[in-house]
Design goal:
114 residues
């Protein structure tokens, strides 16, 4: 679990998700924060994906634009709480969304505003 201790609560960027897209349901919390083991991460807490058959890739993006994003990697459908590391020395200030896209088709499935 992400450790937010020592961070100003007003500076923790997070979103609560409870949406249905393309027949699938997404719910949980997405947090942009500091990992106690080092570096920044996008942490998915109690994040459930129901009725989605494909594989999803997560991007940390500016205004939902994948061309202005960082590929965080594939989502873990098996575990409801997991983290995806952000490359070291990345300035995360311009990034305000997490985009989930289908791994094969590259189509956006869900945009999460942080």
């Amino acid at each position: 679990m992400a450790d937010m201790s020592g961070q100003d609560p007003s500076e923790i960027t997070m979103a609560t998700v409870d949406e249905e897209r393309k027949g699938a349901t997404f719910s949980g919390t997405v947090i942009l924060g500091i990992d106690p083991e080092g570096g920044e991460v996008v942490f998915f807490k109690d994040f459930l994906i129901e009725d989605y058959k494909g594989e999803l890739t997560a991007y940390l993006a500016t205004d939902g634009d994948i061309t202005k994003s960082i590929d965080l990697g594939e989502l873990d459908h098996k575990s409801p709480s997991f983290r995806l590391p952000i490359p070291l020395l990345t300035d995360t200030l311009p990034y305000n969304t997490v985009v989930l896209s289908d791994k094969k088709s590259k189509k956006k499935i869900l945009t999460i505003n942080l």
